[in-house]
Amino acid sequence: MKKSKRIIAFALLSSFLLTSVAGCDDKIIDTTLESQAGEITSETTETEETEEIYEVGEGLSESELYDKYRDIAKQIYINDGKDYLYGFGKEYLNGYVCENSEYALFIFDDNDNLIEYKYQDGKISKYTPSEMYDVDHLLTFDQFFHLPCLLDQYSIHADELMIDTYNSVLCDGKYTGTVIGLSADMDYAVALVGQVYAFTLTKNECLFLKKGDKIKVDGDLHDYVVVTDVEDYGENIRIEVDDYCWFIFDKNDTENEREYILTKFEHPYYTDSYSFVMIPISKDCKFDLYFVHGDVNGKTVIFDEEGLGFEEAKDKISHNSDIVSDDGQIIIKAYENGGFEMIGSIVKPIEIKDGEITYINLIRCVE
Questions:
Q1: 51 or 350: which carries more pLDDT confidence?
Q2: Which long-range contacts (CB under 8 A, 24 or more apart) does 24-33 make?
Q3: What is the pLDDT of residue 2?
Q4: What distances in angstroms separate CA 306 from CA 132, 196, 279, one per listed residue?
Q5: Residue 243 zone, left/alpha/beta (φ > 0; ψ -120 to 50; rest)
Q6: Contact by Cβ (8 Å): 340, 350
Q7: Best-predicted range by mean pLDDT (15-24, 35-44, 259-268)
Q8: At residue 19, does pLDDT exceed 60?
Q9: 3-state class of 39 per DSSP?
């Protein structure tokens, strides 16, 4: 781990620790400071590998473990009152997730010590990790406490320090990536996203594109992209851009003007910049939802609705999703294979206007 990253991380901590996150000031105070962590007892032992043991019981589900880890983090935050970094993760060895690795709680203290709390045999014990992890993946306590579910933060590849990007206000445009979770009140989504290249061209503009032409793109990251190759396949033209992504123009398309988004290999939408962020959801947001329930009384039940308003979508998501933690946090799991997808379907990117999500497509397969 680079020492410079530690210095940057701690320089940012004091400005983030007790500030509001996406307008959630009151919620932060209520959830983090109103009471001490309950139903967790600890004891100190003399063993070399562990100093603290929390008796929590056998067979905890991920939902229950999520609650216990948050209780431990809350207890440490209240008792120590210092600018530590917090996060969920899985144990790694030589850069790879250990076989049968379970979720752990990681805390980076003000003495540059990384501490791991791990659940085994009905107990959560304190360890020194077998490997040193990068603190770029950890968050301030208030940011950490807003994570809606257990997740392996060390598998998230944000472009900057996560404590920096987490509070970012995204510029208007279309974004691709992974929806990690939604808050129970659906005020915000936690996601790993990057802005896609979106642009509008007429039919004639597509027909006469040639190598070296510049195409103006939407968004704030890039002003334009450059055409590097044009391949005519008869009915379709494949227009390569900047040597690594492309879009397909259908000569038979009857629309004179339409929007295009770049793709790359197996990814349905291309971006070159990812941030780990908490994004407010507009009350005017439109939702496309697709839920597959694998076994309901021996049958597969599918819920498929498009264009739902905020309140109706909230009701449907709550009914069709997993519930994790006592405060009713909703988890929508997803994969990072471009777009917001769960079972291999290619779906549209989310749309953001004035820093809020105004369109989102969610797919969920419930076992």
A1: 350
A2: 24/146, 24/187, 24/188, 28/142, 28/145, 28/146, 31/145, 31/327, 32/74, 32/77, 32/78, 32/141, 32/142, 32/145, 33/78
A3: 37
A4: 45, 22, 21
A5: left
A6: yes
A7: 259-268
A8: no
A9: coil
The Cα 116–Cα 124 span in angstroms is: 10
Residue 336 gets the label, from left (phi > 0), alpha (psi -120 to 50) or beta, of alpha
Q: Which residue has the tokens 């360890």?
A: 127
Residue type, 255: E
Whole-angstrom distance, CA of residue 335 vs CA of residue 312? 25
CB count in 10 Å sphere of residue 86: 25
Q: Which residue has the tokens 């805390």?
A: 107
Residue 5 tokens read as: 């990253």
- Rg (alpha carbons) of the chain, rounded to whole number: 23
Helix then strand then coil, in percent of the chain rounded to 5, is 20, 40, 40
List the end-to-end C-alpha distance of the chain, in Å, as a whole number. Answer: 39
Q: Which residue has the tokens 């405060």?
A: 327
Rounded Cα–Cα distance for residues 9 and 161 (Å):
7
